[in-house]
Amino acid sequence: MSTVSYRDVVDWLISARHPVDNPEGWMTECCERMVEAGLPLWRVGVFIRTLHPEVFGRNFIWTRGVAGIQMGTVDFEIQTTPEFQASPLSIVFSDVVEVRGNPHGPEAERFPVLLDLRNEGATDYLALPLHFLDGTLHAMSVSTRQPGGFDPDHVAALRVIIEPLARIIEIISLRRTAEMLLDTYVGNSAGARILGGQIRRGHNDTMQAAIWLSDLRGFTALSDRLPAETVVEILNHYFDCQVAAIRGHGGEVLKFMGDGLLAVFPIDEYVGDAAHVCARVLEAARESRASVEALAFPVGDVVERFRFGVALHVGNILYGNIGGGNRLDFTCIGPAVNLAARLEKIAGRLGRTVVASEGFAKVCRHDWHELGEFPIAGFSKAQRVYGLREETPAVTA
Q: Nearest-CA neighbor of 44 among 141, 146, 164, 170?
C-alpha cells in the first residue's frame, strides 16, 4: 500500500516548489504523484486556451509508461470542426460541467474519442473544467484502464486536487503567455532577455550582428490610392514574404516601421561564424526577393505587384532598453544600424533589390558587383556599395 495520500498531492501542489520554466517535467511529476497516491490514471490531458494571434490552444498529454509529454497546438478553426463539436471537451467549454463517459457504454457512439480510448484499453473517461482566477475556462481529461473504471473515491479525489492544480497550471500558462507575447511583439531573443530581468532603461549589451533593413518600394503612392484596410492586408502579406525567411535562417525581427523591417542575425565572435551567418542572411534575402516577386494582390480589376529593397551590413550594435519614463523599447542602435538605413535608400536610387556594405561583402564571399562609392550622411568617408551581379537594376523614376 502506498504511503502517499491525496492530501500529500494537494500539499505538494500548494508548496510553491514548481519549476515554471519546465512545465513538461512538472506535469510528469504531478501525474506520477497522483498515481502513487492511488489514482489509477492511464492518460491525463490538459487543454489550455492561449493568448496568441495564431494559436487557439495548446494540449499536453501524459500517458503512463510513456516517456515525456506529448504536446500540440490547435488554431482558431478547431472550434468549428466536427471532431471538436463531437468531443466531450466542447461540452466542458460550452456548459462548464464535468463530462464522464464509459468507452464501453452507449455514450461511445456519441463521442468518437471514447471509441479510440476503448481500442487502446481504456475503461473510463472524465473531463473536468479548469477555472483560472482571471475568469477563463480551460479543461483537463483523465482516463483509466482499471477494470470498472474510476470509483467514487477516485472522482472525489480528482475534484479536490483539481483546484490547486488549476492554480499551478495558471501560473505556468501565464508564464508561457508572457513568453509568446514577447516573442510575437519584440522577438525571441529580446523576449528572453526581458523575462530574464533586463527591464530597466540602460540594460543593454554590445553585440556583433549582420543587419537587415528593408522597405517596400512605392509604399507612399500605394497608401495614397488604396483604402487603409487594403494597405494593411498588403503589408501583412509582404512581411510574410520576409519573416519566414529571416527566422528560418537564424535572424530575429526586431521592428516593423511602416513598410520598413529591421532584423538582426547575431554573430558569435568566439566561434568565429561571421561568414556562415552572413551567407545565411544572403540566402534569406534571395528567398524574400523571390517571394515578393511572386506576390500578386488583386485589387478590383487590377493585380498589384511589388518590389522591395534590402540593405545588408555587419557590425557592432547596442542592443537593449531604450525609451523614456516607463515606456521602453527593446531595440538596437549604433552607427552600423544607421549605415544600413542609408544603404537601403541607396538601393532604392539604384533600382536594386539587394545591396551590401563593403564590410558585409568582404565577410560573405560571393560574386558581388561593386556599384561605386557614395557619400553617406553622418559618415566622414564615402562608402563602397555592392550589389548582386545576378540582378538587373529596375528602372527608377
A: 141
Alpha-carbon span 71 to 361, nearest angstrom: 43
Place of cell 525581427: 253
Nearest-angstrom CA–CA distance, 124 and 119: 12
- Calpha distance 73→117 (Å, rounded): 21
Q: Which residue ranges does the chain devote to CATH 3.30.450.40?
A: 6-185
Residues of the chain with CATH 3.30.70.1230: 188-388
In 3D space, the residue among 296, 293, 290 whose CA is nearest the CA of residue 307 turns out to be 293
pTM as predicted: 0.67
DSSP string covering 56-97: -EEEEEEETTS-S-EEEEE-GGGGGSHHHHTSHHHHHHHH--
Q: Which pLDDT tens digits describe the chain residue by residue (397 residues)?
A: 556 688 999 998 888 677 667 888 889 999 999 999 999 999 999 999 887 667 788 899 999 999 889 999 888 888 888 888 889 999 999 999 999 999 999 988 889 999 999 999 999 999 999 999 989 999 999 999 999 999 999 999 999 999 999 999 998 888 877 777 777 776 666 666 666 666 566 667 788 999 999 999 999 999 998 999 999 999 999 999 999 999 999 999 988 999 999 999 999 877 778 999 999 999 999 999 999 999 999 988 889 999 999 999 999 988 777 777 777 677 788 899 999 999 999 999 999 999 999 999 999 988 899 999 999 888 889 999 999 998 877 755 4
Query: How far from chain centre, in Å, is Cα 365?
Result: 32
Q: Which CATH number fits domain 188-388: 3.40.50.300, 1.10.10.10, 3.40.50.1820, 3.30.70.1230?
A: 3.30.70.1230
- Cα four-point dihedral sign 326, 330, 336, 337: negative
Taking domain 6-185, whether its CATH number is 3.30.450.40 is answered by yes
Q: Nearest 5 degrees, angle CA 283-CA 287-CA 289?
A: 115
